[in-house]
Amino acid sequence: MEIFEHLALGISAAASFQNLLFCLIGAILGTAIGVLPGLGPTATISILLPLTFGLPAEAALIMLAGIYYGAQYGGSTTAILVNLPGEPSSIVTAIDGHQMARRGEAGKALATAAIGSFIAGSIATLLIAMFSPALAEVALNFGPAEYFSLMVLGLAASVVLASGTLFHALAM
Questions:
Q1: Using alpha carbons only, what angle is made at residue 60 by residues 119 and 64, rounded to the nearest 5 degrees?
Q2: How many CA atoms lie within 13 A of 135 on its CB side?
Q3: pTM value surpassing 0.85
């Protein structure tokens, strides 16, 4: 299959020593900043983006991916150890992970978060690689009418899901 050939090419490019080193540096820095409550992956990438300016494009993207995943794991670390989720994606981790940490199983909870994140990220990458050509074809066929319909759908959904009076929902 063509998809797996492209993935193999990408893995061979990413598996060079230099790129793996940039990924490791990004993951360590991302984890160090992602541990701080309130600084999620988006803020961490924004803070560390200037570090990638002098790098080749391939290495910069790999380092940014390492920063993102490191910051994601850093958020789960504070959620598990301190019961303080730094971003919304760590709320569920705080519920079960902190209970495990209180029972003395913090290492098991952190390992479960890391392994689960790795497996889910790998599966998501494969799914995106498989379905992105079809999604790109659909997206390229969108015109002004379809974009307008999507906007109306989004606004209608936000009004329906809003709590309180209909007037406040419409004003929002």
A1: 40
A2: 6
A3: no
